[in-house]
Amino acid sequence: MGLQIENVSKTINGQQILTQVDLDIQAGSIVGLVGRNGAGKTTLMRLLAGEIQPDTGDIRLDSADLNDIFYLDTLANWLTGYNARTAADVLEIFYVNFDRQVFFDILASQDLSETKTIASFSKGQRVLIEVAAGVASGAIYLLFDEPLDGLDVFVKDYFKRLLLEVVEQGRSVMIATHNLTELDSLADRVFLIKDSEIVEQEKDSDIVKIQFVYEGDQLPSNLLEVAIILEQRGRVYLALVTHGVLDCIFSDYLTYKFVEILQVTTEDIFRKELR
Ligand SMILES: Nc1ncnc2c1ncn2[C@@H]1O[C@H](COP(=O)(O)OP(=O)(O)OP(=O)(O)O)[C@@H](O)[C@H]1O
C-alpha cells in the first residue's frame, strides 16, 4: 500500500538532479523532504505529481489514479487571479472528490474571505489557501512545497492540526521544507537529498548530541577527529558524537565536566550530513 518510488533518476538540461531514488510513502504518514537549495526537492515532487517523467525507474500508486495526488506547482502563479469561490470551481474539475464545504470552512476558520482575489492575500494566507485546497481536494497524497514558509505561530499550529486530521483519515502528506525545527514535531520520517541521492534520516541513529565543559586549553585532537563541534562558548561546547565516543568522554571525568545529553534534531543531522 502507498506511493512507491523505485530507482528513479532524473536529469534536467544535462544536470543529474536525482539518482536512483527509492522512497515509499505509507498510508497515514507525514514524510519530510529536506536538502539544500537546489538539491532536487521540488523536482521530486513534480515527478510524483506526474508533471515531469523520470528518465529511469518507476513511480507506483496503489490506486493507479494520479488525481489521488494533490500538488500545486508554483504557488506564486497558482490561481492567483481567482477568488476562493472561483478557485473552488477550478479545483472541482481537477479533483473529483473536492469538498467545497471543507475548503470554505477552513478559510472561514482563518477569516479568509471567499470573494477576495487570491493574489491580494498575504504570502502566508496564500499558503493557507493552498493547504485548504489540498485538504479539501480529497486526494490521498498531499505534496506541499515549503508550506511552513511565512506562517505565523498560530497559523502553524492550525496547519499542524489540519495535518493530523488528514493523517487520521489514512491520507499521507509530504512536506519539502527548510524549516527543520518544525519537521521534528511533524514528520514520521525524514528524507534528505544530497548529491542527487536520497537517504532516510534514522531517528534512532548512533549519534548523540552533548553539551559539556572542557577544562583543558584546547579540545584534544582525537576528539576533534571524531566529533562535530556545533558551537563553542568559552569552555562550553555543543557537539555531535557517536555513542562510542561518549563512553570515552564519560571515563575522562577530570577534563570533561557537566556532560549533558541533549535530543538530536533534524537540524543537527542536516548539519552533520551536509558539512
Ligand atoms: N526546468 C528546469 N530547467 C533547468 N534546471 C532546472 C529546472 N528545474 C529544476 N532545475 C534544476 O534542478 C535543480 C533542483 O531544483 P529543485 O527546484 O528541485 O531544488 P529544490 O531542492 O526544490 O531547491 P529549493 O530548496 O531552493 O527550492 C536545480 O539546480 C535547478 O536549477
UniProtKB/TrEMBL annotation:
Q: Where is the ABC transporter domain?
A: 3-220
- Give GO terms: molecular function aspect only: ATP binding; ATP hydrolysis activity
Q: What keywords is this UniProt entry annotated with?
A: ATP-binding, Nucleotide-binding
Q: Which domain of life is it from?
A: Bacteria
Q: ATP-binding: is it a keyword of this entry?
A: yes
Kindly list the residue ranges recorded as spanning the membrane. none
The record's listing under PANTHER family reads:
ABC TRANSPORTER ATP-BINDING PROTEIN YTRB, SKFA PEPTIDE EXPORT ATP-BINDING PROTEIN SKFE
What is the protein named? ATP-binding cassette domain-containing protein
Q: Which organism is it from?
A: Pseudolactococcus raffinolactis
